[in-house]
Design goal:
The chain has nine helices and six strands; from the N terminus they run H-E-H-H-E-H-E-H-E-H-H-H-E-E-H. Helices cover about 45% and strands about 15% of the residues. Helix 1 runs parallel beside helix 9 (about 240-250) and helix 2 crosses helix 3 (about 50-70). Strand 3, helix 5 and strand 4 (about 150-155) form a beta-alpha-beta unit. It has one domain: Undecaprenyl pyrophosphate synthetase (3-Layer(aba) Sandwich). A six-stranded parallel β-sheet has the order 3-4-2-1-5-6, sandwiched between helices.
Length: about 260
């Protein structure tokens, strides 16, 4: 029998505390990637005439989610907010979304926040004013020591790998290497060092996708080689702390072998 909404709301805090206690002493992911999916579907299901409301509510959810991650001991979060494929959307759909992303990133970079923000992706695909605003907001957080937050905008995993190879090639030439030898000398470390998300994000532990879809859609293709996947049947604007806790519990229950 399904409990009525008021009963579920009453029981939820008790259930959350039980899950938190159950996670004590268990492995936690250091690096989490999340695909913020289902904003438009949430807006339609909620009866909004304009689906932009879904992105607006979804943008407001980000800071709350990051707080949950910080409290759970996560050190690095990558938020997939806009793919390079999304850039082909009509202007009347794309520009409101870009404004919401800009507002979200600017909010995360506010002086009273502790997040260390970095924007990753092919920012040259964005209108110049949005790209500049995102870069400036992120730059203002460079010296912070809190949770590291990568915001993927204009991001595509295949594009990232191609750009990483190009970056490795340019670096090789700058160091005086022979172009004819590059293909023989290129290795995994060269690509990893030139990813948009170079550094600890190359060791992603857990990727979460909201909305019930069960595919990566180009998100962190290189970094997901040994990441655990968790798909949750909840639209991003409706994502709750208990959904994150369940993802962490699922992660803790798995045996990670890293191909061995």
């Amino acid at each position: 029998m399904r409990l009525p909404g008021w009963a579920r709301r009453l029981i939820l805090p008790v259930y959350e505390r039980r899950v938190v206690r159950g996670l004590e002493g268990l492995p936690r992911p250091r690096n989490v990637g999340i695909m913020l999916d289902g904003n438009r579907r949430w807006a339609r299901a909620a009866g909004h005439a304009d689906v932009v409301e879904g992105y607006r509510v979804g943008g407001a959810k980000v800071e709350e989610f990051l707080t949950w991650c910080r409290d759970a001991g996560v050190e690095h979060v990558t938020l997939f907010m806009l793919s390079d494929d999304n850039m082909a959307r009509p202007e009347h759909q794309l520009l409101p979304l870009l404004r919401i992303i800009e507002e979200t990133v600017t909010g995360l970079a506010a002086p009273e926040r502790a997040w260390r923000v970095r924007v990753i992706g092919a920012l040259d695909l964005l209108p110049a004013d949005h790209a500049i605003a995102l870069k400036e907001a992120a730059a203002a957080t460079a010296d912070r020591t809190g949770l590291r937050v990568d915001v993927a905008v204009g991001y595509g995993g295949r594009r990232e790998i191609v750009d990483a190879v190009r970056g490795a090639y340019r670096q090789y030439l700058a160091e005086g290497g022979d172009p004819a030898d590059f293909a023989d000398r290129l290795d995994v470390e060269h690509i990893s060092a030139n990813l948009y998300s170079r550094g600890e994000a190359d060791k992603t532990d857990l990727i979460i996708r909201t909305s019930g879809e069960q595919r990566l859609s180009g998100f962190m293709l290189w970094q997901s080689a040994y990441a655990e996947m968790y798909f949750v049947d909840v639209f991003w604007p409706a994502f709750r702390r208990v959904d994150l806790l369940r993802a962490l519990r699922s992660y803790a229950d798995r045996e990670r072998r890293f191909g061995r």
